[in-house]
Amino acid sequence: MKKILITAFDPFGGQQKNASLEVLKHLEISSKTYQIHTLILPTIFQTVEDIISAKIDILSPDIIILLGEAGLTKEIRLERVAINIDDARIKDNLGNQPIDLPIKDKGENAYFSTLPIKKIKAALDSINIPSIISNSAGTFVCNHVMYLVLHYLQEKKASNIVAGFIHFPYVESQIKDETTPHLPLKQSVKALETIIEACL
Ligand code: PCA
Predict the structure, then answer these.
(1) pLDDT tens-digit profile of 38-75?
(2) d(CA 103, CA 86)
(3) Which residue puts its alpha carbon closest to atom 2 of ligand 1?
(4) Is the CB of 169 within 6 Å of ligand 1?
(5) Cross-strand bridge partners of residue 31
(6) Which atom of ligand 1 is nearest to the CA of 142?
(7) Do residues 183 and 84 touch, judged by C-beta distance below 8 A?
(8) pTM of the model
(9) Which residue puts its alpha carbon closest to atom 7 of ligand 1?
(10) Which 3 state secondary structure label does DSSP give 166?
(11) Tell me: the pLDDT tens digits for 33-44?
(12) Which residues belong to the active site?
């Protein structure tokens, strides 16, 4: 049976909620062909590496879908690339704000997602859920964890494990008025189900 690891982040930047966590909490899937394993990551540069690498070692997943929130967009962002830089515009949840620092001193400049992002996009298009292929996951903790996971898999020569990052917009309970870009929770959960199916 295939094992799928799905992670989400805790709220950050003084917010009460994180869209990725809301979506993951509401995912209800039971399948005979695959198992879903979830993990909540802290929005902290320093600690995510140990947490995620320990989980990958223990679980040995086939697929890793990393989720995060990207506010002020109404599309799901299918991240294509992670770059070797931390450059935080705000503090993380431990109060750290690295500026212009490489994630891995001798690491590759960038790694590409190994999730089937074009196939995922086509699947989301077919059910009218807005998504884009994004060529930057930013330079905050989401890019950081995407880079670290792809680096870790390369170091371990684990090319059989596919992994990548997907940013979700705010859900409706996070916004003050309807003009703020968001994607309703129900649609976001449906999107995650569709993403999982497209990865299999
Ligand atoms: N979004 C942030 C970090 C945690 C999250 O959900 C980011 O885009 O880096």
Answers:
(1) 999 999 999 999 999 999 999 999 999 999 999 989 99
(2) 6
(3) 142
(4) no
(5) none
(6) 9
(7) no
(8) 0.98
(9) 142
(10) strand
(11) 999 999 999 999
(12) 79, 142, 167
Radius of gyration of the chain (CA): 16
9 Cβ closer than 6 Å to some ligand 1 atom = yes
- The verdict on the CB of residue 8 being under 6 Å from ligand 1 is no
User: Given the CA of residue 69, which atom of ligand 1 is nearest to it?
Assistant: 6
Measure 33 CA to ligand 1 centroid, in angstroms.
31
Look at strands 63-69 and 2-9 and give their pairing: parallel
- The span from the CA of 153 to the CA of 186, in Å, is 32
What the block records as the tokens of 63 is 């697929």
Residue type, 16: Q
Report the atom number in ligand 1 closest to the C-alpha of 141.
Answer: 9
- Amino acid occupying residue 198: A
Cβ atoms of 98 and 50 closer than 8 Å: no
Q: Which amino acid is at 155?
A: E
